[in-house]
Each structure stands twice: as structure tokens, then as C-alpha cells.
Amino acid sequence: MAKKCKIEKAKRKPKFKVQQHSRCHICGRPRGY
Questions:
Q1: Assessment of whether the complete model's pTM goes beyond 0.70
Q2: Residue 2 buriedness (CB in 10 A; 0-12 / 13-18 / 19+)
Q3: Contacts of 23 (CB under 8 A, 6+ apart)
Q4: Nearest-CA neighbor of 3 among 29, 31, 33?
Q5: CB of 1 within 8 A of CB of 32?
Q6: How far is it, in rounded angstroms, from Cα 30 to Cα 7?
Q7: DSSP 3-state assignment of 6?
Q8: pLDDT digits (tens, 9 = 90+) for 1-33
């Protein structure tokens, strides 16, 4: 399980498109979606 701050950061709209980071929206893993 990813830290809550990391999940929230991934949910936020990024200032630049390259900052977008896809995470699993259930468990928060960057690879498990």
C-alpha cells in the first residue's frame, strides 16, 4: 500500500502533463493497475 500522501499527489492535477503518474486507484500501486 502506497502512503496516503503519494496517492493524493497522484490524484492531483499536475502543472505539466509529464508530471502525471498513473497509480492503481484501489491500492495505490504504480504497477498494479
A1: no
A2: middle
A3: 2, 6, 7, 10, 29, 30, 33
A4: 29
A5: no
A6: 10
A7: helix
A8: 778 888 888 888 888 888 888 888 888 788 776
